[in-house]
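User: structure tokens for 3-beta hydroxysteroid dehydrogenase/isomerase domain-containing protein, please.
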Amino acid sequence: MKTDSYLVIGGCGLLGGHIIDLLLKRGEEDMAAFDLVHSQLDPKVEVFIGRPRDLQEKINVRGTDNVIREAIAHGVRKLVYNSTASVVFEGVDQLNVDETAPYPSHHIDDYNDTKSMAEKLVLDANGRNGLSTASLRPAGLFGPGDRVTVPVFMNSMLSGRSHVQLGDNSNLFDWTYIGNAAQAHLLTADRLSPSHPKYGSVAGQAFFITNGDPRPWWEFPRALWKEAGHKSQKKTMAIPKSIALILAFFTEYICLILGKKPTLTRLTVTYCCTARSCDISKARNALEYEPEVSLEEGVKRSVAWWKANHAEQSPGTK
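Assistant: Done. Predicted tokens:
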């Protein structure tokens, strides 16, 4: 029986790399990766490089449209799109949101706007020339290989800012361990086969993917810092959201004049101070998805990876 072949777009990145690892572990042999830059992957995986100029729109919208067109033209049967939980986020509290939530009329930033446009293209393409599609919406991705979330929090610790808190920490937030998100992609791809019993519940659908364990925002970075052996000697300084937004406005303005990148933005304040959690019941039912790695275990694995790759910066290695 012919097995599926896989093209992992973004295969050299955090999520793509973990998806390839899972495919290799289950014995898949016919796969390739496409990305902006090359990174070391298993020799079995062929890597193709592309270099678009306008990253936001060309990758998220036009790039996705190109993938859909080529998939339809060449008889590809399955397309799993990695979206984001933020495609329905407009900057206000959003607790236990599910897939019935509409796209906002105005997104909080260009990234989420272009991701929602791409998601619509993917879901609208379901059924065209035998192509079956689905979109996954992970929230707060983190884990080994992370170039954003874990390094940002660890740099805050190293720079002596772990005692600074934006907001009152009453807002819940959903995080997703990268291995769980990668597993969700494979579950989705398997269920996009028309012969699968769950096919009708998956094709043409979007699914929120999280660890199913929302926590107060600052609990997560503090767990990372604790696992790294860090103990702050300073009393927590909580800055109210309203004050933080004003400080961020002036920081952005001054950095604009000086031609520098601001260390504090209004977008950052909004993300840190807004309640955001997702209902993953749909993924549990249709994809039979269940987070295998807990937040606590994910934190341990993430810090172990960070220490191994940033040994000179780790508290216990100085």
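User: Anything notable?

Assistant: The mean pLDDT is 89.
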